[in-house]
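Exercise 7. Given the components listed, write out the predicted structure of the assembled complex. Treat all entries as one system.
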Amino acid sequence: MQRYRIRWTKVGRVRFVSARDLSSVWERALRRADLPIAYSEGFSPHAKVSFPDALPVGVSSTGEYAELTFAAPIVPARDLGALSATLPEGMDITTYLEVEGGAPKLARMLRATLWELEWPAVDADELTDVLSTRGRQLLDAEHAEVIRHRPDGDRVVDVRPALLTLAAATRSGPSGAAPTGPGGARTVLRAVLRNDGPTVRPTDLLTALATDVASGTVREPDVAPPVITTRIAQGETVDGGLREALSGEIAPLVLDVDAEAA
Amino acid sequence: MLGAAPTIAAPPLPSRGQRAAYRRPGTAASVPDSVWDALEPLLPEVTKPAQYAGVEHNQVRSEWGAADTRWLLCYPDTYEVGQPNQGLQILYEILNERPTALAERAYAPWIDLEERMREGRIPTFSLEHHRPLWAFDVFAVSLPHELGHTNLLNLLDLGGVPIRSADRTTEDPIVLVGGHAAFNPEPLAPFVDAVVAGDGEEVTLEIDAVVRRWKLAVVDGSADPDDRHQLLLRLAAVEGVYVPAFYEARYADDGRLLRTVAVEPGVPAIVPKRTVQDLEQWQYPRKQIVPLTETVHERFSVEIFRGCTRGCRFCQAGMITRPVRERLPETVQKMVEEGVKDTGFEEVGLLSLSSADHSGIGQIVRDLADEYEGTTTSLSLPSTRVDAFNVTLSNELARNGRRSGLTFAPEAGSERMRAVINKMVSEEDMLRTAEIAFSQGWRHCKLYFMVGLPTEQDEDVLAIADLAIKVWEVARKHGRANKVTISVGGFVPKPHTPFQWAPQDSPQEIRRKLALIRQAISKVNNLKLRTNDPEEGVIEGLLSRGDRRVAAAVERAWRLGAKFDGWHEIDTLPMWTRAMEETGVDLAWYTARERDENEALPWDHLDSGLDKAWLWQDWEAASSDDVVEDCRWTACYDCGVCPGLSLVHDTGYDGGTNLPDGRVALPVLPTGLGGAPDLPTQAERYVGG
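Answer.
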């Protein structure tokens, strides 16, 4: 049995595929690439592909991960390359790492996520200012409770414990994950959220930032939802960003173009 | 609000006079803008957004300018239901293989997205490039049943195309329909430009050639670019193409149809269906599309034969797809192996109307079971034949998995009723088959029945419960947890069958009969009854045997909001009831009335190959409980289909099935009878998963 950990992307149109449908997308791609993936035992065997967590439908990602168990040895560069080629457009394997004996669990290597929220090319300067100011206030606060609306009822979530750092900036180059709408300067918010502990999603963070934290009262949000949300990478938090779990590369919190730190 | 996204407007619909530029052949055409940018921001708000994204494995994306003719193939229901359709898959491949053509696909957007599309003026779009319907040359729609008719009007309207043929010009696509419900297209006559009955492979390519020649003639000045009539005439000259506008229905004073007559010089009085004579020449699918989201059938499918010789009198599919044409076992094997490799599907479906009837089925199943034994590839054979052989085949197919459920279709409860419908299964057959199935470890058995069949009495209805209880007793003998489910649907008489003259039961009567069954089995544990809403048969019945006058009700019902008639999300029956009142359509006259021998039927000018006199004779035989044998194994009874086709009369009773080119396939001994497994009753047809 050989195990590989991979980092993969889910960008463009394929981001609308649900986590529930993804396992058969992977299983069929593995069969097309004719790789000796291992199968679980039992009446309805499933390919041994495990995902650390589910990405919400519609969210883009360059920081998805999976662990693949093979029943026979593979030639990773060639075989995982073939797998990447037969995956749907927008799904690509970008990094792989063979799992050595005694390696920590994948989930333990993915303690934090760098998220990016990008707004359309309107109100960029003002919005970046507002988010920078509110971001500082949020980092200074001990708690930031928001209400998460769900079909099965509302829940109060404290965003603050999960928030490690954030920065807002104005980006004028081409859009990041999915080029959408007209060009021009756009506000981009990057934040590192902890993966351990109660789940806090970028939507919860936005709820906290879309109202004036300092006022402390319930107000109507005055910031629109971002046009695209991207899970950039997962790994460990470090100064200035996130150390990606498989490659060790640093994904920066602050963008180097037209950057303005919070 | 800061950072609010400006609404991305859909590319505007060009006004009339501006659309011809998009339709030019080749690179001379203007390329219509994709609607994706306008659509994308709506997707996070709607259910199952992946169905609108495209990007499936094996989709074909050709440049607009790379083709002379551009087709939009459509199944007028959701992606989930329509994507697995085998017919459209085949046409998609053969059109895209032709260097001068391109084909993209469209499905009906679900109610939540359609609402937002209308607000944002986003037209019906293709999945490959998200291009608008109005820009294509041919909008080819498969009508597998009648409950997609309102969706067809809705898709046209949403797509920027006038719903009535008479209002369309050369700036609009040709609206072409095919599929089983196209065997009576009269309720859609004012809305469609051309209809094809029968097998689509050859005629689609012929139509494509006609459209291309016409377009090239427009370019070189030898055809009038505004003369749509001329284009329709050229289409009508293709064998099997019916252009409703060239025909008129004439009625008697009492409202009965006298005749549908050709009123355009040169068009045929009777339009024949098309029949592909040798399936070996059409080895599709090769590159089956692999969906990224859940659909009703996720498997690689190979049609192992087309047609059916069982002669079940209720079964339209069995009648209109005659004669039987089998694929060679080695071709089936090759298509499966290549298809599984290419798609990565975990399941293989061996499709036909009664798959256990292929004369080489034993070999096909054994070879494939050998090939995939010990792998994760599973095989399925949609067959509902009531016999031991069917269980044997199922055992082979279940080598890799567990023996969970088997399906049989006795269709009726009493011996007399089964003789009426020509379903030659005895109670003894059924019980012996159940005994074999449960003794060999199968744990669940599903039985299909119908109520509302011609000449049915309450005792026939109660016989369904009796038979079900007897099967349940067999099941229980082999395990207390074993289960039996009976699925009972209301019968809807269909055109081109011996029951086309029969009265249809009212929903009240169907409900009463279902209640009789429910009461009779109420005390039995682990025997479940599944039924569907009897009201559903009302619209299906009206549209199945309706004439051109029903079209007014179709349009009115759609304007009142009817769509997705086969679903339960919208209660469309009140809309239909009001539409029928307003347009003077008498439901009972169309559905509950028994027609007589001399009455003209709205589909008489469409020739399914079956001789009307033979159908009448078979209808009379039904009334006297006479049966006819399966002509695959017995002497020909001259239903009318085979003469004229260059087929060796395809029977196996003299020792082998004769195939073209002198090939002979060995017959297996037939026992018991099957049904129409891949064309389930309404209850099954619309259920996901």
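Discussion: Confidence is low (pLDDT under 50) at residues 648-689 of chain B. The first strand of chain B starts at residue 69 and ends at 75.
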